[in-house]
Amino acid sequence: MLDPVITSEGVAVVHLFCTRTPGTDDEAVIAAVKAAQADDVQVVTVAVLGHKAELCFMALHPDSWKLRDLQTGLTNAGLVVVDSFVSITEVSEYAQGVPEEMKNMRLYPE
Question: What is the model's pLDDT at position 24?
Answer without folding.
Answer: 97
